[in-house]
UniProtKB/TrEMBL annotation:
It is found in: Cell membrane. The keyword Lipoprotein does not apply. The keyword Oxidoreductase does not apply. This is ABC-2 type transporter transmembrane domain-containing protein. One of its GO terms (cellular component) is plasma membrane. Its main location: membrane. GO terms for molecular function: ABC-type transporter activity. The chain crosses the membrane at residues 67-88, 252-278, 299-324, 330-357, 364-386, 423-444. Pfam families: ABC2_membrane_3.
């Protein structure tokens, strides 16, 4: 049934042919005994501390003899955490934006060395003030002489959009401020800046729109101050106070961090545990250990203890990278967060045992593990908020292995909530429930395959 038995039979046949023992019976012709003799080291009970320590020491020595692999497993979380913060932690900058201003006869060179604004229609062009604000928001301005060339720049992907200032923009804007609701339609039209954007990229276009809108507010406030008007007139009638949770301008990495951390903590034990057990199965080490008297319980606990030691080291590396090196927000209980992370890792170990028992090939187990983590990555709320899912999918996802834990992590880390909150309790309960489900499925699968019987 395996490579060792086939090799044994071939060796016996070769030995018989060389020594003229062709009259010996083939192994399959031996009479079947009336009852199966018990193994020499059949355990008297399913748990023995000496056997457990022997298995644990064997696993430990195997890791010590594979230092490069061990270092890779320990440093992979740090590399992933640093890479995520470098990629996700910074907003887009130096985005090209075209500019066409009909009130600047010599182009953007008219904006150099301007005198202070004197709050009149004959003062310096106000388009220069707005463009200066956009430069401070790290937008890269490109000048064009006509609308068609500016449009073609966006069509060819050379710019993310372009602005057009009418010829009487400054005069019309001053009149619009002075006369208010009495302004004519022509004044309203000429005081507007026309904008064409490439909206194919959600994040880039949204951030450019945000910077342009906030830029208008900033430069009109400065204009109000220069004209001795209250700067509050430039504000929208909506004032955002200090946030109850979080910061005023959050970063995308702050939203992603809980999902990224728990995804790492779920997948890394799967990768290492499945690989270790499948290696033992394919090399025959698992079978030899069981024949020698080890029990499945001792093998599972020995692997689990070693994995928990490894993931503890990985947790330290991940938390140092996210919260010490890059200062992501953390306001809650560290002990509660660590308990949740360990439960997620224990769930990953339980799922790894299920894959190792259910599949006969390491390749198939790896495919299943990768497919699972891709699905968890999509549904746990890293790419898009959980609240934006279809209601039917949201009902199922709320009881999936990882998504409730991600919401609980975010509630603890960024809102300082505890176990008295329903979201936090739900995250802990679903993680424990899925760990029990994976463990039960592993037990029944091993029993069906008579593994260790």
């Amino acid at each position: 049934s395996n490579l060792e038995q086939a090799f044994l039979q071939l060796s016996q046949r070769q030995h018989d042919q060389l020594h003229g023992c062709d009259d010996l019976q083939d192994p399959e012709d031996y009479p079947t005994p009336s009852q199966c003799p018990p193994p020499h080291l059949k355990p008297s009970r399913p748990w023995n501390i000496d056997r457990f320590l022997a298995q644990l020491m064997k696993n430990f020595m195997w890791n010590m003899r594979n230092i490069p692999m061990l270092l890779f497993v320990l440093m992979l979380p740090a590399f992933q955490a640093i890479l995520c913060n470098l990629i996700l932690g910074t907003e887009p900058h130096n985005m090209s934006l075209g500019v066409l201003s009909a009130e600047l006869p010599h182009g953007l060179s008219d904006c150099e060395d301007l005198p202070p604004y004197n709050c009149s229609a004959q003062g310096p062009p106000l388009s220069c003030s707005y463009l200066e604000v956009l430069r401070h928001k790290q937008l890269k301005l490109k000048e064009f002489s006509d609308l068609e060339s500016a449009r073609q720049s966006v069509v060819k992907g050379e710019s993310w959009g372009f602005l057009y200032f009418p010829e009487n923009y400054t005069r019309a804007l001053i009149e619009r401020i002075e006369v208010g609701q009495s302004a004519s339609d022509q004044v309203l039209d000429e005081s507007q800046v026309d904008v064409w954007l490439d909206m194919s990229n959600l994040w880039v276009s949204t951030m450019i729109k945000r910077d342009m809108i906030l830029g208008v507010v900033d430069y009109v406030k400065n204009l109000m101050i220069s004209c001795n008007y209250p700067p509050e007139l430039a504000d929208i009638p909506l004032k955002f106070e200090e946030p109850i949770y979080g910061i005023m301008i959050p970063k995308f990495v702050h939203f992603c961090a809980p999902g990224l951390i728990l995804t790492f903590c779920f997948y890394l034990p799967i990768m290492f545990t499945t690989g270790a057990i499948m290696m033992e199965k394919e090399a025959g080490l698992m079978e030899r250990s069981l024949i020698a008297g080890m029990t499945i319980l001792e093998v599972v606990v020995a692997h689990t203890v070693l994995q928990l030691l490894l993931v503890t080291a990985q947790n330290i590396v991940i938390f140092l990278s996210f919260y010490v090196l890059y200062y992501n927000p953390f306001y809650g209980s560290l002990s509660l967060i660590m308990a949740l992370v360990w439960l997620v890792e224990l769930m990953g170990i339980a799922y790894a045992f299920l894959l190792a028992v259910f599949f006969e090939s390491e390749k198939l187990a790896t495919y299943a593990g990768v497919g699972t983590i891709v699905l968890m990555f999509i549904i746990c709320g890293i790419v898009w908020p959980y609240q934006g899912m279809h209601w039917a999918v949201r009902a199922m996802v709320s009881y999936s292995p990882l998504q409730p834990a991600v919401e609980a992590y975010r509630a603890i880390a960024e809102r300082a909530w505890g176990l008295e909150n329903a979201i936090v309790r739900h995250g802990f309960c679903t993680t424990l429930a899925w760990t029990a489900i994976f463990s039960s499925a592993t037990y029944f699968s091993a029993k069906k395959k008579k593994l260790g019987a």
